[in-house]
Amino acid sequence: MLVEVYSDIACPWCYVGKRRFEKALAEFAGADAIEVVYRPYQLDPTTPEQAAPLSAHLAAKFGADALPAMHARLNEVGMGEGISFDFDKALSANTFTGHRLLWHALDAYGRDTQAALKDRLLKAYFSEGANVGDHAQLVDAAVDAGMDRDRTAAFLASDAGVEETRREIDEARQIGVTAVPTFVFAGKWAVQGAQETETFARVLAQVTEQVAAEAPAADEAAKPGEAGEAGDDCADGACAV
């Protein structure tokens, strides 16, 4: 069964959701039959290419008064998932090129390498203050994920993957993805947000059973865009446009 995870490198809940889903999958008896791929989504495609302090970007979007509580909540949740958020160090940068690199990782190296690169980019963005729009830093992240340095640099210097990445971002909106992370199971059922590990475990069992029976989805599953509500911010569990 294919699980497509729509997420953005600039979404902290996508980092949390990835960790929780991976925990659930590691304990799932049918894990060998699950194929996980990461699809691109940009919360703010207008973010400048030039990196700038993330705190200033968030303050302009949500208001400076909202940031302490938002960051405190994410720090608390992150600690529980082995994630060390550093919002004071983090840099805001356009994530399109990072998504294009993730497309290349899947196309040229496979799902495991793409997952490793996704984790590396999230850590770089939220824990290390890296510029995920900078080609040199993206190459370093790719090498850490097991990709070839020269091949990666050549890819980033070309226009390869640009059209494909744009098409996948457009497709996400066309199927109704409005907040991330969104997990789409077998192209039919979606779960939105960084659910608890136990919830992901139940979903994996339920959807696997549904796929095996070729029956309609249970009430707990929904079409993309219908699995819960999210405000116009990084509320608990999901980041919305």
Automatic annotation (TrEMBL):
Recorded coiled-coil stretches: none
Domain of life according to the entry: Bacteria
Region (Disordered): 216-235
Pfam families xrefs: DSBA
Biased composition (Low complexity): 216-227
Location of the Thioredoxin domain: 1-174
Protein name: DsbA family protein
Source organism of the structure: Yinghuangia aomiensis
